[in-house]
Amino acid sequence: MKKMSRSPHLLIESRFFAASIVIVIAALILWLRLWQLQIYRGDYYRRISENNRVRKIDVPAPRGILYDAWGKIILGNTATSELIVVPQYMKNQEKTFDVLARLLHQPGDLFKRKYKRAKSLPKFMPITMMRNLSLHEVSIIESNRLFLPGVEVRTTARREYNTGTSPHTLGHLGELSPSAMEEFNAKNKNNPYSIGDLVGRSGLEARLEQYLRGQHGYTLIQVDAFGRASNPTEHEWDLPLEAAKPGSNVQLTIDLELQETVSKAFSGKNGAVVVMDPNTGGILALTSLPSWDPYMYQRGLSPEEFRAMTLDPLHPFMDKTTSGEFAPGSTYKALVALAALQDGIITPNRSYICNGSFSLGSQAFGCWKKGGHGTVSLHRALMQSCDVYFYHVGIELGVDRIAKYARDFGLGSKLGLEINMERPGLVPTQEWKKSTHKELWAAGETPSVAIGQGYNLMTPLQLAALYSAIATRGKVWKPYIVKRISTPAGITLDERTPTLVRTIDSVSLENFELVRSGLEAVVMDDEGTGKNARVPGVRVAGKTGSVQVVNLKKNKNQSDVSILWKEHALFASFAPVENPEVVVVIISEHDDKGGGGASAAPVAGQILRSYFDLKKRRAGLAIGAAVTPIPTSQEGAEHD
Fold this sequence. Notes:
Elements: H1 2-40, H2 42-53, E1 54-59, E2 66-67, E3 73-85, H3 93-104, H4 110-117, E4 127-130, H5 135-143, E5 151-161, H6 167-170, E6 173-175, H7 178-187, E7 198-200, H8 203-207, H9 209-212, E8 217-222, E9 249-252, H10 256-265, E10 271-276, E11 283-289, H11 296-299, H12 303-311, H13 333-342, E12 352-354, E13 357-360, E14 363-366, E15 374-376, H14 378-383, H15 387-397, H16 399-408, H17 430-437, H18 446-450, H19 460-471, E16 475-477, E17 482-486, E18 492-495, E19 500-503, H20 509-524, E20 541-547, E21 568-575, E22 582-588, H21 596-618
Parallel strand pairs: 2-9
Antiparallel strand pairs: 1-8, 2-3, 3-4, 3-5, 6-7, 9-17, 10-11, 10-22, 12-15, 13-14, 16-19, 17-18, 20-21, 21-22
Helix pairs in contact: 10-21, 13-15, 13-16, 13-20
């Protein structure tokens, strides 16, 4: 019986002992876990905790600044605001995007589409939804932040354009697509792109992308449970802050003040203007019209607007200075004259009779002057742009010999400016026609080629290079527009110098002088077709031209035909004749007046006057009397 009475007591003691062991073991485990969390891995878990309330904010880098040759800003940056969302902190994406669309009066699917494009990004990375917010849009977003977790307004930089500079030259930016990001990052492993980053899409923005883009930085902020910034503490973050590094700055050969004059002088026309230094190949000004608003990509271009501009027959998106291919018209006669002189086809005194037309077999080719020029030698043929003279010369030369000299001057191939899809132009030959059209060259096609029409095609840049070579008596320089690339601290990364491509030895200096004399008479003689390009106190040489787009009867004002049927007016010039410093080429597309003397030459004259006035002012000399106005009289400014 006693044994039975002790059994419950022993059972309780054994159970208490077992429970005590379990409690001690559990306490030991908890203590060890606490020691591991707080001491052994305390730093690690503290960093995780900090990361839950500390957010890393990406800081976009400002793009590099473009300066003109005199240090004036052509393309800079200004502060702007953009709308971003951070998926990690968004509670209801569908509802958030619907609310944003209503608040900002945007299409309902705009934000959803942009979010879908970046869906592969980590949830903590911000996604840009709208750029260049107005103050009103910023205030709307900020006043509704409580109901829009994960939605923020971020300050960043946007491009600030000088409106006098052609947007075709500067280019524009566009968002980097997911499909293109892999390709871009393969070339930029040390400074990778993210989806939504802006990249250069055209012009200098695209060509200099690797230099102009900077390197993103970041900062850290304390956030609440909704991802909104809260009051900062004095805690020192373990992660270091990194400032954004601006892109490199670029100095161009462009003269901004001259560029502004070019834009004003050519305003209202279509076509292109190229101003070049014939002694270096440096581009002083470029203009292509019609153009486009450089800010339209920043505010957003609707599909309808893009379609309308794409279908515009005057091609506003095309940079006609490098991509536009035009028949050079009578400006080509200078090259034909050089070829004929050099090959002994003509002498300065050899003359032809122009009675207003030229016959070849059953074909008749008219001169722009219906009554004819009478007996014409080289000097007068250039001065008054006699077509009949050059019909004779072209037939005797033949198309292949004309082509040989054209190629000596660099025509028919790209010049290497490397912006905006530079085109090579076209120098026709018998072999070219046979291989391209599967036809033999017809003798009746040569007269048109000799006056710069027919199959001939040149870009305005090539025409400027041709007249630069004539101005310098045979030196062909590679055109360039980038002068110097440097870091924001001023350290030079790259400096471009003039590149002499070749010196033309197939034409003698004597023959260059004969043609240059004729070109000078075009402007300086009272009977010259280009006298509207005169500049007081400066000897100017040039050549007028006009190109028929369709076969129309001559009509001085061409006011009764469609704009797309109107003639192109051309003028190519250099000055001063004795020691050329500047080449100006004008191609006025579908011009109302038609002739280069009446329409293009006055524009060149205004540009040349501006160039020499700027030169005097910069030299600290008095300019003197007011600038002589552009002649408005068309007397003596013949059709060509």
